[in-house]
Amino acid sequence: DNVGDNVGDCAGMAADLFETYAVTAVGAMLLGHLLFDDPVYIIYPVILGAVAIIASIIGSYFVRMSGGTNIMGALYKGLWASAVLALIGFYFATTGLLGESTFFWPALLGVLVTVAIVYITDYYTSKAFRPVKSISYASQSGHATNIITGLSVAMEATVLPAIVIIAGIVVSYLIGGGGEGGLYAIAIASMAMLSMTGIIVAIDSYGPITDNAGGIAEMAELPEEIRNITDPLDAVGNTTKAVTKGYAIGSAGLAAIVLFADYTYHLIDYVPAGELNFSVANPWVLAGLFIGAALPFLFSSLAIGAVGRAAYEVVNEVRRQFREIKGLMEGTAKPEYGRCVDIVTRRALKEMVLPGLIPVLAPIIVGVVLGREALGGMLMGTIITGLFLAIFQTSGGGAWDNAKKYIEEGMYGGKGTPAHAAAVTGDTVGDPLKDTAGPAINPMIKIVNIVALLIIPLVATIVR
């Protein structure tokens, strides 16, 4: 579990956000190249990223506890400081580079979308608020009601982030004056949102650090009062991890829209604009929409199933060691930890081959078999359902995890009660959702769009 926390919630999430950052920067630069003759519009997104890196480094020094126990408040000080410093830099970079401030406002909007998604995810996954408390309360009546309430919270948690992202898209488009300027404004909002990656990854890393601290305390058999300190810290860590995943999903949604715009505008290099038909009245576009909408579900199914199969193999290995290693049950012998780590590592590599092929092969097959319009429809279908499914899984999983932590702190009888047993079941269901399938949908969405961009010369002339 300690190894998994590091690779899943620290290295894995940082890699995901780095990939989103790079894809968004390239997408915004490509859009600037396709829409404008002036190379300054290609450089501008990178300048925003550079300014925000400096702002994030300075903002990290504002993370301070000024008494009390409001850990999230201390972390948010760093976020707010980074955001304010970045916006100041954005303004001077925009006016200095472009000669006017039009595109500063989409950049401001991108930062505001980041802050809004962070606070919304905090609300749905922190044990201080209604959603998590409702799951803990429902655990008193059993495992089924815990799952039912958790599903309800997860579904509800998709609405507000979607509204925020929609507002960001529409307002940015209008600020940019619609048309080509509007699309570039959306790209700038996406880049500004991703420019906060540095401080967001720092906040995210708090989670695995405190989780591992609790694990070390447990393995070292330290006194109960140590766990009483690390458990509340771990609960906050669950929220910081969920917040980062919400941010990653929201930014991936905006990045994918930028990539889709790149796809449609790049097609014009090969096909006259009047011959392209991305209307839903086109049956090929509609077919692509349905195929794209199904992909995140198939991908999630394979990812969640992989977790179940790997966990089953680990459980069998643990049982084997209890049977065959003398003194293990009595605590006089040490288990073979490496065997379990090896099983999970091999399974992770093997089980991700098929899900990894989906976003690569699907665009090629759809583009070649059904044509360029169907491929465009598939991209949009993947973005829409992928965004909602990813938020559903990450927010729901975080809420289930903290509902268990809330009960372990003494609510509804604490540890060892039927309510706690139900909450453990909910957490076990939520873990593969929030740690495997949900975050993995982000790169899936972007890879589908990237492959579609790369195969434009191949599918540009295919019409059905």
Describe the overall structure.
Helix 1 packs antiparallel against helix 8. The protein is globular. It is built from 16 helices and no strands. It starts with a helix and ends in a 5-residue tail after the last helix. By secondary structure, it is mainly alpha-helical. The longest helix has 44 residues, at 224-267. The chain has helices at residues 2-35, 40-59, 71-98, 104-125, 130-138, 143-156, 159-175, 179-194, 197-219, 224-267, 283-324, 337-351, 353-370, 372-408, 418-454, 456-459. 82% of the residues lie in helices and 0% in strands. The model has no long low-confidence stretch (mean pLDDT 89).
* N- to C-terminal distance: 50 Å
Overall form: globular
Order of helices and strands: HHHHHHHHHHHHHHHH
Largest sheet: none
| Percent in strands | under 5%
Helix content: over 70%
Q: Calculate the mean pLDDT score and round it.
A: 89
Q: Tell me the Rg in angstroms.
A: 23 Å
The secondary-structure class comes to mainly alpha
Which spans have pLDDT < 50 for at least 5 consecutive residues?
none
Number of strands: 0
How many DSSP H or I helices? 16
